[in-house]
TrEMBL record:
It is found in: Microsome membrane. It comes from Gossypium stocksii. The record marks Y424 as: Transition state stabilizer. It comes from the Eukaryota. Residues 266-484 form the Peptidase M1 membrane alanine aminopeptidase domain. This is Aminopeptidase. SUPFAM superfamilies: Leukotriene A4 hydrolase N-terminal domain, Metalloproteases ('zincins'), catalytic domain. Zn(2+) binds at H338, H342, E361.
Length: 825
């Protein structure tokens, strides 16, 4: 039974116009607690009873929280979090001791705004053991997509508000006073008061009881198991939903805007299958009675794994059979599988502190590949892992700014910025390397043991190494892994062939190599800075020149780069041309070569010669990487050697034409998911390179589409290419193409269509059009969350974009995780 159940009348009226501190001025209760990175632990929360009364029309809320607190040391103080945005009604604060029925009223209330803490100083020492702290508060439903916020939507032509929470990493304190750190796990009883009865209300747990009061309702939710504050969630608005259940009875629902329920079908399918897969893999079932997934129109990141109530931006949850592309489908599966992995890794077992953020983000990223591979084997998702995760991780880790995976976090304000490529992509990549080293079954068992051992509790990186040490009988596990998680950067393996021995230099790393074929795979742990390996025997079997290659880091399992001497590189090129290497190895060699070229370890001419070996490439991932590299080189050459631009463009067009002819503009019967994605990528790249035939064909198909939005001539997979092609023809004196695109943008209600258009507008070579496109991205027609997609500027537009960026009022860019996908500059 909720502690405060049915006592909505106990909302106290504000009596005094409301200062947050009382008038006693003798001492400042906050002095001892300022500037501390973590909350003190002499009082520990066990259970929260939270009553929230939101007013969606007035964009505000009030509430009362009663927290069962374990006082573990003699103290007159209770220190917890409350953000400056939250108004604490000082008169409402009291502490009661259930044993003696004594009430400790009106503590001195101090708050340290910079640290977002509330310091309550009582005149008597609080008794050790359980007590109840009660606090009344008020706040604003903000428009910043964090804390307790308002998202807007259109319903039958009317603009409506919904109320949504986003508490990770440290915004629960904007909604109710709490111990807002991941290690203070507690149970939550949530009550929503006075909500218009036609609205859907959701929280982490199923409804316990609902009371109607005229056209308002009060909804009581069941008590949650112990969880961290950043995972608490509430959603209130109008939605349609579809539902199903797992074989063991977990109810799964997908909520979308009214009228879009069908678009939730794909995510529902993925969720059901994924829950089953994770249950088997982790050897532990999903831990709550229900799972809701909700599409929110205004959403700062891609999605948020709130326990039992996962929230998503619409484009990452909904899929429209007629207008979404293959790439959209893969994104939905990725995000759903990622958030569901968190239900175990993050929600059930939580990182001790944000330093170990990678433990949940790296793992959820990696696990999503396991799930996708199981659900959609035809996606060959592991071949995409290197391109999407490791390649990006290595690129960022090679720059000056990054941090080690385990990163020191001393203040709440530092947490947001570590949700980055290092935590996610380098994190996922070293997990993949570790799994490669210890082997799949050992790795899975270790993970299952880790989850069992730390369920409903917290864990740190060392706890994971401890389990792996035991399960894999690997006493030096932490020594091996520390070099990857505690220092930044990665090694470059420099390989030379000398008298039939391989000479390799670098850190302590698990390496693999093979010579001439994949049966000759050698795996070893390289422990010295420099080693030589005798490979006479391996080489003696080889007579065919196409088999005289040596590939290190087989299947790109290790998180490092490899630099070959000229002779070895030439043999690899020959092997690529003769189709002897696997997809991931072709991709890895290309990616390493580009990185080495950027680091001036390889000449541009050598790189281009190498790229020519990929002329007949048709594999999606390799093409996708090739296109990324083409785009980057084009931008570099445009600045450094403009006189070579034409030659380079023709060279690159030549590299892509074989694939373009192979895929064609129209879907082929029975073709795979990867070919569908490649088609769009190839034509987009050709349009950007100014390939006239592509631009003309795309424009003609687009014109047909303008008259018939369902024409088969503009399949969703090629729309982005067509839009980019349309923008190549737009100039300041002829903006017809831009206007047509904006018309489509305004008419569609599909988020993915809007994003496709927004991502094409600034690809125009005309500077003044780029300027106009950038301003559009910040206009009221674009939700703040999507502005970031409008920054994909053409190489010709970079100068003007930079000037624009310097003068715009620094509007915070949301969804910065997506920046990697947007900015290829
Ligand atoms: N926990 C994050 C969401 C988040 C990110 C909260 C940053 C607060 C700050 C969530 O699990 C996540 O990682 N989402 C990704 C999804 C992706 C990697 C599949 C996102 O939002 O892009
Ligand atoms: Zn995540």
């Amino acid at each position: 039974m909720n502690l405060l159940k049915k006592c909505s009348s106990c909302f106290r009226k504000k009596t005094d116009g409301a200062s947050t501190s009382t008038s006693r001025q003798l001492s400042d209760p906050t002095t001892d607690f300022k500037g501390q990175p973590r909350l003190p632990t002499f009082a520990v929360p066990k259970r929260y009873d939270i009553q929230l009364k939101p007013d969606l029309a007035a964009c505000k809320f009030e509430g009362i929280v009663s927290i069962v607190v374990d006082i573990v040391a003699d103290t007159r103080f209770i220190v917890l979090n409350a953000a400056a945005q939250l108004h604490i009604n000082s008169d409402s604060v009291y502490f009661s001791d259930p044993n003696s029925n004594k009430v400790f009223e009106k503590p001195k209330v101090g708050n340290v705004e910079a640290d977002e803490i509330l310091v309550l100083e009582f005149s008597d020492t609080l008794p050790k053991g359980m007590g109840v702290l009660t606090i009344g508060f008020e706040g604003v439903l903000n428009d910043k997509m964090k804390g307790f916020y308002i998202s807007t939507y259109d319903h039958n032509g009317e603009k409506k508000n919904m109320a949504v929470t986003q508490f990770e990493p440290a915004y629960a304190r904007q909604c109710f006073p709490c111990w807002d750190e991941p290690s203070f796990k507690a149970k939550f009883n949530i009550t929503l008061l006075n909500v218009p009865s036609e609205l859907v209300t959701l929280s982490n747990m199923p409804v316990d009881e609902e009371e109607m009061n005229g056209n308002l309702k009060t909804v009581y939710y069941q008590e949650s198991p112990v969880m961290s504050t950043y995972l608490v969630a509430v959603v209130i608005g109008l939605f349609d939903c579809i539902e199903d259940h797992t074989p063991d009875g977990t109810k799964v629902r997908v909520y979308s805007q009214v009228g879009k329920a069908n678009q939730g079908k794909f995510a529902l399918h993925v969720a059901l299958q994924t829950l089953g897969f994770y249950k088997d893999y982790f050897q532990m079932p999903y831990s709550l009675p229900k799972l809701d997934m909700v599409a929110i129109p205004d959403f700062a990141t891609g999605a948020m794994e709130n326990y039992g109530l996962v929230t998503y931006r619409e484009t990452d949850l909904l899929f429209d059979d007629h207008h979404s592309a293959a790439a959209n489908k893969q994104r939905v599966a990725t995000v759903v599988a990622h958030e569901l992995a968190h239900q175990w890794l993050g929600n059930l077992v939580t990182m001790e502190w944000w330093t170990d953020l990678w433990l949940k983000e790296g793992f959820a990223t990696w696990m999503s590949y396991m799930a996708k591979d199981k659900l959609f084997p035809e996606w060959k998702i592991w071949t995409q892992f290197f391109d999407h995760e490791s390649s990006e991780g290595l690129r960022l880790d090679g720059l000056a700014e990054p941090h080690p995976i385990e990163v020191e976090v001393n203040h709440a304000s530092e947490i947001d910025e570590i949700f980055d490529t290092i935590s996610y992509k380098k994190g996922a990549s070293i997990i993949q390397m570790l799994k490669g080293y210890v082997g799949g079954p050992h790795f899975q068992n270790s993970l299952a043991t880790y989850i069992k051992r730390h369920a409903w509790s917290n864990a740190s990186t060392n706890d994971l190494w401890a389990v792996l040490k035991e399960e894999c009988n690997e006493p030096t596990m932490d020594k091996i892994m520390n070099s990857w998680t505690k220092q930044k950067g990665y090694p470059i393996l420099s390989v030379k062939m000398k008298n039939q021995t391989l000479e390799i230099k670098q850190w302590i790393i698990p390496i693999t190599y093979c010579c001439g074929d994949y049966d000759s795979l050698i795996s070893l742990l390289m422990e010295k800075k420099s080693e030589t390996y005798d490979i006479k025997d391996l080489l003696s079997n080889i007579t065919d020149p196409a088999r005289s290659w040596i590939k290190l880091n087989v299947e790109q399992i290790g998180f490092f780069r490899v630099k070959y001497d000229d002779g070895l590189a030439a043999k690899l090129r020959y092997a690529i041309e003769h189709k002897c290497l696997s997809v991931t190895d072709r991709l890895g060699i290309l990616d390493d070569s580009f990185a080495l070229c950027m680091a001036r370890e390889m000449s541009l001419t050598s790189l281009l010669t190498f790229m020519a070996a990929y002329r007949e490439e048709l594999e999606h991932t390799v093409l996708s990487n090739l296109i990324k590299i083409i785009d980057k080189i084009e931008r570099i050459v445009a600045d450094a050697r403009p006189e070579l631009m034409n030659y380079i463009k023709q060279f690159f067009i030549g590299l892509l034409l074989h694939a373009a002819a192979n895929f064609g503009w129209d879907p082929k019967q029975g073709e795979g998911h990867l070919d569908a994605m490649s088609r769009g990528d190839i034509f987009t790249a050709l349009a950007v390179l100014g390939h006239e035939e592509t631009i003309n064909e795309a424009n003609s198909r687009f014109n047909t589409f303008l008259n018939d939005r369902n024409t088969p001539l503009l399949h969703p997979d090629i729309r982005k290419a067509a839009y980019v092609a349309v923008m190549q023809k737009v100039t300041s004196s002829n903006k017809a193409g831009l206007e047509s695109l904006l018309k489509v943008y305004r008419e569609t209600d599909l988020g993915q269509e809007k994003t496709r258009i927004l991502g094409s507008l600034a690809s125009c070579p005309d500077e003044s059009v780029v300027y106009e496109a950038l301003n559009f991205a910040l206009s009221s027609e674009v939700r703040k969350q999507d502005a970031v997609f409008g920054l994909a500027v053409s190489k010709e537009g970079r100068e003007v974009a930079w000037k624009w960026l310097k003068v715009i009022k620094p509007t915070p860019l949301h969804n910065t995780l997506a920046l990697d996908r947007v900015l290829l500059v």
